[in-house]
Amino acid sequence: MNGETVWRKTVDVPAEWEGKILQIGVARVKSFDSTYFDGKEVGSTGPAIKDSWNQPRRYRIPGALVKGGKALVAIREFAPDTQGGVHGLPEEMFLRAVATGKKAANLYHSDFKEDFELGGNPYRYYRW
């Protein structure tokens, strides 16, 4: 259907993940989305993203929001002119802890992070 849809799922967060940065994958959402973890927005994809309907959604959940036990994930989808829905592969839907602990090299800007799933991208900060 066109318009706004909200999808909700209760997930179990292991106690050992408490305070750790998590990554959530919500597959591909037709048109646009805002994704929430326990009531706090953790990411969104809007009209500025080309072919947003076919882009896998992956967002970071700050450690300050992560507590062991039950948590509510909500996806607010908005499909202005197409049939809405969530689609993609089952492995594109996940909740996992992000490995941290590596320090960024001093060659990069101070807010550079090396914990990106596919590795750091120095071109994100500097034109060489």
- Percentage of β-strand residues: 35-45%
Shape: elongated
Residue-averaged pLDDT, rounded?
Answer: 79
* Rg calculated over all Cα atoms: 16 Å
Terminal CA distance: 46 Å
Structural class, from helix and strand content?
Answer: mainly beta
Largest sheet: 4 strands, antiparallel
- Total of DSSP H or I helical runs spanning 4+ residues: 0
Bin the helical content: under 10%
| Biggest sheet: strand arrangement | 1-6-3-4
User: What order do the helices and strands follow?
Assistant: EEEEEEEE
Query: Total number of β-strand segments?
Result: 8
Low-confidence stretches: none
What's the layout of helices and strands?
Layout: E1 3-13, E2 22-29, E3 32-37, E4 40-45, E5 56-61, E6 69-79, E7 86-87, E8 93-97
Q: What does this 3D model show about the protein?
A:
It is built from no helices and eight strands. β3 and β4 form a beta hairpin. Strands 1-6-3-4 form a four-stranded antiparallel beta sheet, with no helix packed on it. Strands 2, 5, 7 and 8 form a four-stranded antiparallel beta sheet that branches. The model has no long low-confidence stretch (mean pLDDT 79). It is elongated. With 128 residues, it is mainly β.
